[in-house]
Design brief:
globular, mainly alpha, 9 helices
């Protein structure tokens, strides 16, 4: 019953976020995270925080989502959920690109791409669509040589190096 209730609240939070009701979305994601914590489900708890960050970012908030993503990176690594690490890195890059930091965004996005290739992780169709849009927008913010240099720098990073670089961004 706890699992069903937690997932139900999670779904309502996502719906509220899609409708632009950030206050309700935040309250429901936090409620769902608290329920997940009580039953000892770290994966679901972290997913609640990550989804809150996504909803905030999708609605134009950038500072808080960046902090949430940065906080979650070592937690996902600790759980061994490398696909989640890759996605959080991508989201950090999206925030950085929107806040006038295209060079570190390209480095981190390159690192996320390399990580996904190493672990054979495919983004969801929704994530892939966003990735392509964000990558295209990012390429327009940098000269081609600067983009390629930053991308290659990211491609050479280990997961831990990428997490460390992402943690330094503000």
């Amino acid at each position: 019953l706890q699992w069903a209730t937690t997932m139900s609240v999670f779904g309502m939070a996502r719906l509220a976020g899609a409708m632009g009701d950030l206050e309700t979305a935040r309250a429901q994601f936090m409620e769902s995270a608290a329920k997940a914590k009580r039953v000892g489900n770290k994966r679901l708890m972290y997913s609640c925080y990550s989804e809150l960050a996504h909803v905030l970012r999708e609605n134009g908030e950038l500072e808080e989502p960046l902090a949430i993503y940065q906080d979650l990176l070592p937690k996902w690594r600790e759980l061994g959920h490398r696909s989640a690490v890759a996605h959080e890195l991508e989201c950090i890059a999206y925030v950085l690109a929107k806040t006038g930091e295209p060079q570190p965004a390209a480095v981190i996005l390159g690192a996320a791409d390399a990580l996904r290739k190493r672990i054979d992780s495919v983004p969801t169709p929704v994530e892939q669509t966003e990735y392509e849009q964000e990558l295209s927008a990012l390429r327009k913010k940098l000269k081609e040589t600067a983009f390629e240099q930053a991308w290659e720098e990211g491609q050479r990073m280990s997961m831990d190096e990428a997490i460390a670089v992402a943690a330094l961004q503000s």
